[in-house]
Amino acid sequence: MNELNIRRFRWTILIGCLLLLIAIVLSLRLGAVNIPFAQLLEEITQRDGIIFDYRLPRLIIAICIGINMAIAGAMLQGVTRNPLAAPDVIGITAGGGLATVILILAIPGFSQSMLPFFAFGGAICAGLLVFLLAYKKGIRPDRLALCGVAVSSGLQALITLFIVKYAPSAAQALVWLKGSLYARTWEHVGLLWPWTVIGTILALLSYRQLNVLLLSEEMVLGLGSRINQVRLLMIIISVALAGSAVAVAGNIGFIGLVIPHLARLLVGSDFRLTLPTSALLGAVLVVLADTVGRIVMPPIEIPVGIITSLIGAPYFVYLLLRGRIAGKLEA
């Protein structure tokens, strides 16, 4: 790491923390009912009221989802050495989406408590399928990325088929597919936060392996690294992070695709700096997107996945036009 990137990292973390603090206050105060700051502090202290029962768990989930998806995207881009890799591109979110759509549309009278487990199971199965298809005397990054795109396309086609077949009762499934934090509770927080904490710690501890994977295949093998085992471990961590986020909030796109690019623009490609930066920026984006979705058309809530797509898509096009996204990532 050069000194310039380290200075940029420190400033980025400082400014990012300030932005996250502002986003947290706005998220807790603003909504269908605006809460005065004094009442906000009182309800949090007393552990009762709108803030504590509804907005605080929703805020924590938004932070966790931003961290999960951003880190998962950064890791997948490192493993595949493909700047277009992300959980929603290589099939992980589509797997969770298909499992959930099947549950919602094909199983009448399902229990809401089953949703997260179906979504997480679907994401895990999709990740396993991509890995099995990509494995051929080892795992090549380009083959992994292509198999991921193929699996994602196939699963999205199946989702569309189910939506068309069960169109009259597809409203709930469509809302879930767009990604929403509506009616999330402390129960959902309990389901998500352990995956976020454990997955983030494992990811941060893996920065050396991710940096090695940015080297050419010949150099990696020359260093004696067990490259396939390392890639499998990185994929497992990424799937766990993204799958747990999808299980709680549905398909929230563009975070894992765009945020790692922004992090690399700010602090460079060293994963020791990129991973924490991505986590912080992802949390800021999801919290702000959820807040905007609640206040822009009250009392109607715009799903957070739509807001992140409206923000992420233009920025991604901007990066493409500026030539900031190369064909492969390099160390």
Overall description:
This protein has 331 residues and is mostly helical. It has one domain (3-321): ABC transporter involved in vitamin B12 uptake, BtuC (Orthogonal Bundle). Helix content is 75%, strand content 0%. It contains 14 helices and no strands. Helix 3 runs parallel beside helix 8 (186-205). The mean pLDDT is 86.
Provide keyphrases for this structure.
single chain; about 325 residues; mainly alpha; ABC transporter involved in vitamin B12 uptake, BtuC; about 0% strand; globular
Name the CATH homologous superfamily.
Answer: ABC transporter involved in vitamin B12 uptake, BtuC
Shape: globular
Measured as a percent range, the helix fraction is over 70%
**How many DSSP helices?**
14
Strand content: under 5%
- What is the N-to-C succession of helices and strands? HHHHHHHHHHHHHH
Count up the domains.
1
Q: Give a count of the beta strands, DSSP E runs of length 2 or more.
A: 0
Question: What is the mean predicted local confidence, pLDDT?
Answer: 86
**CA(first)-CA(last) distance:** 11 Å
The largest β sheet comes out as: none
Structural class label: mainly alpha
Radius of gyration using CA atoms only = 20 Å
Regions with little confidence, pLDDT below 50 for 5+ residues: none
What would CATH call the class?
Mainly Alpha
Keywords: Cell membrane, Membrane, Transmembrane, Transmembrane helix, Transport
GO molecular function, one term: transmembrane transporter activity
GO cellular component, one term: plasma membrane
Subcellular location: Cell membrane
